[in-house]
Amino acid sequence: MLIKSLPLWLAIALTGCAVGPDYSRPVVEMPGAWQAGAVAPAVAADVNVAPDWWKSFNDPVLDQLVDEALAYNRNLAQAAARVEEARAQAGIARANLAPQLSANAGYQRGRTSADSAAGSQVSDARTANGALSWELDLWGKLRRANEAALANLAASEYNRDATRLSVAATVAQTYFQLRSFDTQLDITRRTLVSREESLRINKRRFEGGVTSELTYRQAEAEAASARAAVPSLEQSVIQSENALAILLGRSPRALVDSKVARGSELEALQVPVNIPSGLPSELLMRRPDVQAAEQQLKAANARIGVARAAYFPSIGLTGLLGSQSAALDTLFSGPTRTWSFVGNLAMPIFDWGKTGAGVDAASAQQKQALAAYELAIQSAFGETLDALSFTRTARDRQAALFTQLQALQESLRLARLRYDNGYSSYLEVLDSERGSYQAELQLVSARLDQLQASVNLYKALGGGWNAPAQH
Fold this sequence. Notes:
It is found in: Cell membrane. α3 (about 60-70) crosses α5 (about 140-205), α4 (about 75-95) runs antiparallel to α5 (about 140-205) and α5 runs antiparallel to α9. About 60% of the residues lie in helices and about 10% in strands. By secondary structure, it is of the alpha+beta class. The chain has a single domain (about 1-110, about 120-460), classed as Outer membrane efflux proteins (OEP) (Up-down Bundle). It has eleven helices and four strands. It has a four-stranded antiparallel sheet with strand order 1-2-3-4, with helices on one face.
């Protein structure tokens, strides 16, 4: 009977309405592009996010480090595990839509009391049953729950992609910071060698009565200043190496025993070209964090339907088909067969506002998710505008500092020439040395800022961009 009526109940369940609002993407006012100039629809469609954007810096060692981090980073491993959990939860929600079939078998032996009317009797009972149960989804509660689970799965996948992007960007920036400290340490060590040589000359001149003690002590102070800067930079190098090794997911033993490889010098790293003019705003909507926020909004929207479905009756069907016999050899014979069919309807009558409060809570969660989605879009545009501006200003600052360094190095050459010929005091040489040394460090810092800005721009764009194909 249950099997014969199953197609009818299935048709009723599948044609039932689904309470709660259907999802539609919120309307957000966005510019057509972030830079001046219109973008043709064909161009916008060709723009894609480059998955291996770090290769644009043209450093094979950086490529290897990022690949290692993407394989072994623990934060990324956690994100991947959360995707597996969400996939399993989606499987549970999907399974709840279908009838559930179960089987059981049992054996019972008992003795009745001798004081009973029939007297003391010993009985055996053997049972084997198959049960089919199904909750009819007339109001869409299970379908909305399945919709929410699928959206949660998509959100976890996007969050994993966002973590992947963050790990790759942090590895690149930490690597650039390490190469910056390497360069500053090299400059400081060269400066220390030069100042110690100057100290040696001035000491000899002082002892020979050629120069004053003031000049000698000034040279001694400058050498000590450079000497003190070396261990500080060495410590910065060690800290950057350790931070990078942790990002790479290396074991405690590897943290102690292995070293972080170096590739190109900081000034030799290739800074990516400027982004094409007029990239579409749609590119930012592909950012994994924005996509994750939208999927979380979809899930919250679907959970409103789950909560509203509690107002309506819940209908469950259960069918039992089996056999019961006192002897095992007759358990599956015709006379021992048993069957039952149960229809169950449950509906809240008065629950002190519990169901309404559940709907209100789901609606409030949907509002939170909507605000989070809108905030993710605002943050995406804000980060992109900041990155675009910083990329330009970092490039301009580096060009100005390079000009300054050239001028200071020439000034130092002339100051030394004037001092050696007795036309000026040693103070002019000291001022020029300090200025040249600081300009070199500032130029390294500006170069680092430019590289970091490029990484921030790639990250803000959700990974980068590919120029449209030329036809």
